[in-house]
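Sorry to interrupt, but I need a hand with the structure work. It will help me judge whether the discrete encoding reads sensibly. Write everything out right here, beneath this request:
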Amino acid sequence: MSRSERSKVPAQSSSHALRPAGPPSTRLSTVLESTGARGSGPIPADTVVTGIEQRSNAVLPGDLFAALPGAQAHGARFARDAVERGAVAVFTDAAGAELAGDLGVPVLVRETPRAVLGELSATLYGNPSQRLRIIGITGTSGKTTTSYLVEAGLAAAGLSTALIGTIETRIGGRRVPSALTTPEAPQLHAMFALMVEQGVDAVVMEVSSHALALGRVDGVRFAVGGFTNLSQDHLDFHRDFEDYFAAKRRLFDPRSSVAARVPVVCVDDEWGARLAADLADPVTISTTATPATWTVAGEVTADGGEQRFTAAGPGHSIDMSLRLPGRYNVANGLLAVAVCAAAGVEADIAAPALATVDVPGRMQRIERGQDFLAVVDYAHKPAAVESVVATLRAHLLTDSPESPGRLAVVVGAGGDRDAGKRALMGAAGARGADLLIITDDNPRSEDPAAIRAALRAGALEVPAEERGEVREIGDRAEAIAAAVAWARSGDVVLVAGKGHESGQEINGVKHPFDDRDVLAEALEALTGERGRSGSGTGDATRADGPNAGVSRVLR
């Protein structure tokens, strides 16, 4: 199908904006040969494919529809819809071919179609990742922040950049919300092809463990891979920590088809040190005393949430500044500089650009004229909660060492996810906070009260003399307002877990909810009340959420 023909197709979803306007054409017989599939019938010699899609409602005329077995249903159930939308052929397994029946178009059958989906997608879009400088960032925490920092460093060198991650996909300044941290292979390679069309030079992308385990990045040629750290998360998906680590390792293992040409590894934790030890010649970074290619020379200084330090690397000693507090962000910044250098950008060009970066929902300050610090952060894992709490506790000591303020933490945990981390998150919050308010995050299909109970149990396992007050308030907006009402001059309020997210998922329905907006509203109500009364306290609560009225205090 020609460029003009594709442009006349009405868009069915925003994903069409991320498809190339002039895709290459590939004969269906070539697809058959390259995948080792067999045709369920004759393959017309003149049939060509101009794209690939595994979502039937996103199919464009000329596409190959990949009908794969899924957790809930087999994609072949939607094959007829895909054909009606213009799919010229279907790629599936034997079960899918039987399920689809006679579709009137060729059906290509392979025992394990997902195993070749990435390479096939790359081929159909002309192997676009080979014409881009692809940088992949993986790890448990810090992927998003490091990706934003790396993108800024690359742009400072005059490169045209793109970003793919948890918060957004951005191509030359155009932003598209992300549904997955790492898109599925057909969408990913289509985006790469679009980026090539639009003159992009370098792409920074977060690479999740799910993406590595499920083959979403198969067919991608990574120039540089960055590893941040590893801590408990996603053990609902991975068998255990070793399986989780093995998935991350695929980005660096030279035996892997997706191994980055240059690995850059933070060795501050045992998993990074183990990964680096397994590799032949990695670039390493460390913010501790551990020997590494890139290190922090001297002390890290902090002032008003900004940090300054000296990055020491091969032939470089660079004074750096970050607008992001916390020792873990020093590691993210150092890793970003090392990744930029590995990608061919001079470190002394990249480093100054990092000082300008703010990351949505990552230690994001909300200011509405209040006399205390209010912060939203995406911390939703035990180690992340522990780190951000420690960072804010250190801020209180630095700001007023003689009479430090108090810290309130509002946190919940997501439903239908790793349940093992809930008690650990509760403990991390209780141990570091003067007030811990346990609330709902995204309960999804689970009972919210059961999730809160798991956090509460972890919090109460912390000895009474080592923890602050513990409250449970099911309604998240009410919980945020209660923390704001509790705060006084010089204190800190942390709302953790959802960060940049703009919805709260409850029983399959996503309700509009943004921690930043809700916190801002509570602050505005508080400062308005204080302005009217002249008092030092305020109250701004809401009791209309799905768990209104659920509130208890524990000590």
